[in-house]
Amino acid sequence: MTAQETAHGANDTDSSHNVVFEAPVETIGDRELVRLPGEASARLPSRGQVAARVRLNGSAVAAVVEPDGRRGHWLAIDTGHGLEAGDVVNVEIEPTKDWPEPEIPDDLGSALGEATDIAGVWADITPMARWEWVRWVNATRNPQTRERRVEVSISKLRSGKRRPCCFDLSSCTDPELSTSGKLVDPDQT
């Protein structure tokens, strides 16, 4: 464990699982983010998305830490934090099992709204599983592939599937910030 990565903090969970580090803010496209150092990322409980309570320079936020497609992670920085590229931020990540509700994309939301027969199934699956469905639908830039994924999501939910299958969550990052499922470097935008 490095000096920048220590376990500390008082909270309602075992603080020995907290991941603490310093890293610079980067800009990719029009979004700010922080890449987790390899050692910090390795301490998270999953190579895919991780629900967490996060402290940025001491300010608490709920967040989902994202995979970078390279077996690491990154964290979106809300513009409300007043941080910009090059600023070094102190980050403390406390993994949690309390997943926030995902933002449902319009196309998937419309399909779910029309499929009243599966409303109970959607409501019954965990927020983590809903994040997986949203990630699977959002993981493509191709409009035809996306349309097909929405259709398949409804079909799978109708058949009782509670999670999408056959895709690697650790290699599935935000397509607006990635190429071939891998988070791009700031100089590639």
From TrEMBL:
The lineage of its organism: Bacteria, Bacillati, Actinomycetota, Actinomycetes, Micrococcales. InterPro entries: AF2212/PG0164-like_sf (IPR037079), DUF1905 (IPR015018). Signal peptide: none annotated. SUPFAM superfamilies: AF2212/PG0164-like (SSF141694). This is DUF1905 domain-containing protein. Pfam families: DUF1905, OmdA. It comes from the Bacteria.
